[in-house]
Amino acid sequence: MDLNFSVLQEPRGFMRILHFIFSILAFASVTEYSGSEKFKCSDKEYTFEYEYPFDLYYNQTFNCGEHNRYEIIGNFSGDAKFFVWTGILALLYTIGIIAVYLKFDTLYRQNAKIPLADFIATVALGVFWLSSSAAWANGLTGLKYVTDVDVLKNPCSCQITSSGYSLLNISVILGFLNFFLWAANLWFLYKETSWFQGNKFHTTSGV
């Protein structure tokens, strides 16, 4: 099997390697996250754990007076799933197009439709990264609010310990970084399309 690994040294090939790495990091930072709220009331400890896809529902009654109920309710699964779905789709496309680069690079250069399809697919996935990252950033803001220690305070005066959101904050940064990487690759892909080749031909002919 003849594979042309030299294409990975070209900008369009090298960028695909970055797409592969950062797509995994982005969606894995969401799916691997596990958060918790720990309540210590009247020498008893209660724990509410939550994870992807972040459809939160917690209703706990404590023995500490008349107003003794804690509720944590919030469904952020839509935003989280959109973000993860985008990451997985981007990963699968990256694997597929790298295989095309390695095995069918000659056909890629000779058939004008393939570079054009690659360019359009990259535009679409770039838009998905931007929109899903914005959606997930909004969802994460809501998640932080409903699990905020200050929001959860009630007359029971329980001691509440909340886990951090560092990994989820990183996921949002990675999402927008992925958008930048996919957008940055468009110029290199555009140079492979018939649009660029045609413009170059007309420019040369006009000189």
3D architecture notes:
It is a single chain. By secondary structure, the protein is of the alpha+beta class. It has one domain (5-195). Helix content is 62%, strand content 16%. The protein has eight helices and five strands. It has helices at residues 11-31, 77-103, 105-110, 113-146, 149-152, 166-184, 186-190, 194-206, and strands at residues 34-41, 44-51, 55-61, 69-75, 159-162. It has a three-stranded antiparallel beta sheet, with no helix packed on it. Strands 3-4 form a two-stranded antiparallel sheet. The radius of gyration is 24 Å and the shape is elongated. The model is unreliable at 200-207 (pLDDT under 50).
Strand percentage, roughly? 15-25%
Rounded radius of gyration (Å): 24 Å
Describe the largest sheet.
Answer: 3 strands, antiparallel
Shape: elongated
Average of pLDDT: 89
Count of helical segments? 8
Transmembrane segments: 13-30, 82-104, 116-137, 170-190
Family: Belongs to the synaptophysin/synaptobrevin family.
InterPro entries: Marvel, Synaptophysin/porin
Protein name: MARVEL domain-containing protein
What's a quick, concise take on this entry?
This protein is of the alpha+beta class and 207 residues long. The chain has helices spanning 11-31, 77-103, 105-110, 113-146, 149-152, 166-184, 186-190, 194-206, and strands at 34-41, 44-51, 55-61, 69-75, 159-162.
